[in-house]
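Standup notes, protein team

Yesterday: finished cleaning the Streptomyces milbemycinicus set.
Today: ATP-grasp domain-containing protein structure.
Blockers: none.

Input for ATP-grasp domain-containing protein:
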Amino acid sequence: MTAWTGGAPAVHIGNVGDFNAQFADGSPAVRRAGGHYACLAAFYSPDPRILVLPRQVDDFWVRELSRVLEWRDTAVYGAVAGEDGGVVEGLRSRPALLERIRRSGLPVITWGRTPESEGLLAPPEPTAGSGPGAVVGPDGLGQALRVTRRYESKAAAHRLFRTLAPAHPGIVVPAQERLTSRRETARVLAARAAAGATVVVKAEYGVGGYGTTVVTPGQIAEAGGARALARRLVRGAVLIEEYVHGSGPLRNLTFDAVVDDKGAVHPVGVGVMDIDGTSYQGVTVGPGAVPDAPAAVAERFGAAVGGALAAEGYRGWYDVDFVMDRAGRLAPVEINLRLTGPAVAFMIQARLARLQGGLPLVRTLDRLPLGARLPAAALADHLGEASRRCRSLGVTLLPTVVTAAFEPDPYVGVALAARTSGALDAAEAVVRSANEALGRMFLDTGVSASDPSSGASPRRTRRPRRRRS
């Protein structure tokens, strides 16, 4: 992680919504949708000193993280969101906080580059993890931001993959076609269905699998034909990509790396992603998580991608995501020029390795359904019990996403760290079971954790579950 922050503590700004919105015409809804995932800002480096979030968080969360990860004096500023849901707009309205960040002299890390974030602090010299790049173009954008915008396009990334692939055995690039109308899309979908082919329909810009749909011939028939499906899927240009057939535990791999301020590429690692349909759910990284052979293929190709990005002026974190086919070849499917979900796992791994020695396995589970809506105190109690049960298995549990526990569809994110994959599996089962038991408990007792006016205490209703365990 030395190439990332120079080993120094850092300022973390959770601008997930801002980053995504720049590819959706600045949509306030898109900005707000990134609010919960912005909790991951706590892990933008191994050692945060100032943490800025769009949503309010309860003190229990950072106390627990500080206890386990031995953070010192981490200052947390929650509910820093403007009227449009953006954290940068919110920061502009808090000059004292901005001045504190400027005076700290620490590297400033965001989820990803945006025009607003690049000009927010305007340091005279680029700082590790915060510099806008060496060149400002006629459009006023730093070169690194311009490269970000270019290759966050899945069409541009695909062209780069095709250029690099011939020099990399073990890499296969799926065919892709860009279509600009619903009529074109319907025609191509109908032709693929007639040939019995499954395809992937992608928005040119998307995140975490959103905007991506796997379409089978059967789904086209169920939708009432290609035209009807195209009307549902297409709003402007789309990409139709060849579906890569494959399955198994190594189906979805990712390679993360850093391009430093001088343009050198520093590989961080390869992980196995958990993908539900097309949506990213989490990752496992660490010794043995990915066998040496596919890991080497992913690292060589991913480093070549980083070299190409660096040559165009990109600086910062990036990843390349792959799908493994039935022959064991890796198909690159997208580049993320920003911090990533897997980056969180690597940051936690680096911190625990420094504190405990060795290199642990880390698994992140970003969206675990809760059985009931929980206010902060009840969530702290629930996660505390899950953490104690995980410790008995030799596993460290860290809460990662904690602001969605009172949503209509409540969920929580956690990270698990252990020395063996078996311990990770056992701990994941414990957490999932505890969440499911929470829902059953409230159903059985007729008590809702979302209704404090009932006079019932979520803590009190938890006691029977503790005795069973």
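Follow-up from PR in the comments: The chain has 18 helices and 16 strands.
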